[in-house]
Write a structure and sequence with these properties.
Helix content is about 40%, strand content about 20%. The chain is α/β, with parallel strands linked by helices and about 475 residues long. Helix 1 packs parallel to helix 20, helix 2 packs across helix 20 and helix 15 runs antiparallel to helix 19. The radius of gyration is 23 Å and the shape is globular.
Length: about 475
């Protein structure tokens, strides 16, 4: 009998773990447990009868780096290469991003002009921020908030406008609470290695050098580099990646169970005992792709030191409001705009979905009338103070707030042809100060207790789709190397 691996959590991380485990020459028995009635986690796409696609979670994936190449390799093996929708780097959705500040949209700096002269919303030329970075001594502390790091190296304007907005756009989080070491490791390492963020990014070494020696990527990753992709999506929406993974693992022996929440995880005679509402399952190894807090609730009393660390990893809730307008046009063209917390804490930003992926617009209700799709992101770290309990907030309130935002910011005052409101509760983990130490303590506990338990997913080492898939692949490799021979 092959050993049994139970994967708990059927989002992209859990599905990717099943995928990599089952590709082994002698795969273990794999059981995937998902609490909800569907697989895919935060990969959620709605396709209308007219062919329009609305994303309620991730809407695009970056192809860069080893993790990006690995995701594309998976996409190719799943037979999805023909469904790729690519956005090249010279496309307006890749080049143009905006900040909404003081009642106006401002393009984020690009090119030489904002470096040499002041361009709103920045009161000074960015040359002064660059000089400050080159002249500021490297930090000595083990960690620092993203805001404090940016303020120290580049000045208050960059910290309070650019980095504040960036943290809201990527993590739906507060730059004053998020760890630069864990959220932006490339910036942290650049300063430590070169004494300057700009020099460190311009003169990379270590991993980057190794990558260049490995030769050009092949397959889809090679095509992405040759065609200079900035990001990509899939014709059927990002959820089609999850559906393809289910179709891949099912015929290869994976046992997939929906409506199977883990209520308790315990050890008995050297094996895991997983308690479900209607059954008990034994396993040799458990892969948790659950949010950290959800795993903490299922752990036994003797694992309280681990549960305590997991409970200390918070997550932010985001209201995602998809809007579609007929016959409307944007005043600017680009990926979208972010809103600094000083301007409006409740409103994180607006994505101009039709610019990046017009293929998702569908067939217009009136022939010849263009369709415009937007997504308004609300709440994040400011959700409770702005809207109250995410579980109780009225969708009508969020819709009114989103419609007011696109009216005020973009001049879209009409009634949308379609509107979808989703409150994604605790969807983005927050890597707060000291997150890296927390991860070290977690791994130390697992090692000292010799627990065959792997923790993967967005709670730990990266919140992007690529990060989640990479963590699943690495865990699968470790598990396959440690399992006893069947």
């Amino acid at each position: 009998m092959p050993p049994t691996v139970a994967v708990v959590g059927g989002g992209i991380s859990g599905l990717a773990a099943c995928y990599h485990l089952l590709r082994a020459p002698r795969p273990p028995k794999v059981v995937l447990l998902e609490a909800s009635g569907r697989f895919g986690g935060w990969l959620q796409s709605t396709r209308t009868p007219e062919g329009a696609v609305f994303e309620h979670g991730p809407r695009g994936v970056r192809p860069a780096g080893p993790a990006g190449a690995e995701t594309l390799r998976m996409v190719s093996e799943l037979g999805l290469a023909g469904d790729i929708l690519a956005v090249p780097r010279d496309h307006p959705a890749a080049r143009n991003r905006f900040l909404y500040l003081g009642g106006a949209l401002h393009p984020l700096p690009s090119g030489l002009r904002p470096v040499l002269r002041a361009v709103p919303p920045f009161p000074r030329a960015l040359l002064w921020s660059a000089l400050r970075d080159l002249l500021t001594p490297r930090g000595t502390g083990p960690d620092e908030s993203a805001h404090a790091f940016a303020r120290r190296r580049f000045g208050p304007e960059v910290a309070e406008l650019a980095v504040d907005s960036l943290c809201r756009g990527v993590f739906a989080g507060d730059s004053r609470a998020l760890s630069v070491r864990s959220c932006f490791p490339a910036l942290f390492q650049a300063e430590r290695q070169r004494g300057s963020v700009l020099l460190g990014l311009a003169l990379p070494h270590g991993v980057a050098a190794g990558d260049s020696e490995a030769g050009p990527p092949a397959g889809l990753a090679g095509r992405a580099r040759a065609e200079r992709w900035s990001q990509w999506s899939l014709r059927g929406g990002m959820e089609s990646l999850a559906r393809a993974l289910v179709a891949f693992v099912s015929p290869r022996g994976a046992e997939l169970r929906c409506h199977s929440p883990l209520t308790h995880l315990g050890r008995h005679r050297g094996r895991w005992q997983l308690t479900l509402p209607d059954a008990t399952l034994s396993a040799d190894h458990v892969v948790s792709a659950l949010p950290a807090s959800a795993l903490a609730r299922a752990l036994p009393a003797e694992a309280e030191p681990l549960a305590r660390e997991l409970r200390a990893i918070p997550a932010a809730s985001v209201a995602v409001v998809n809007l579609q307008y007929e016959g409307a046009a944007l005043p600017v063209t680009g990926f979208g705009h972010l809103v600094p917390s000083s301007e409006d804490p409740a409103l994180l930003g607006v994505v101009y979905d039709s610019v990046a992926f017009p293929e998702h617009d569908g067939t217009p209700a009136t022939p010849g009338t263009p369709s415009l799709r937007l997504t308004v992101m609300l709440g994040g770290a400011w959700f409770r103070q702005s809207f109250g309990d995410p579980a109780l907030v009225a969708p009508e309130l969020l819709l009114r707030r989103a419609r007011a935002a696109v009216s005020d910011h973009l001049g879209l005052a009409g009634t949308p042809a379609r509107a979808i409101v989703r409150v994604q509760q605790d969807c983005i983990p927050q890597y707060t100060l000291g997150h890296w130490e927390r991860l070290e303590r977690i791994q130390r506990f697992l090692k000292e207790q010799e627990l065959p338990l792997s923790l993967i997913g967005a709670s730990y080492s990266g919140v992007s789709v690529n990060d989640c898939i990479a963590s699943a692949k690495a865990a699968a490799a470790r598990i396959l190397g440690s399992l006893p021979e069947p």
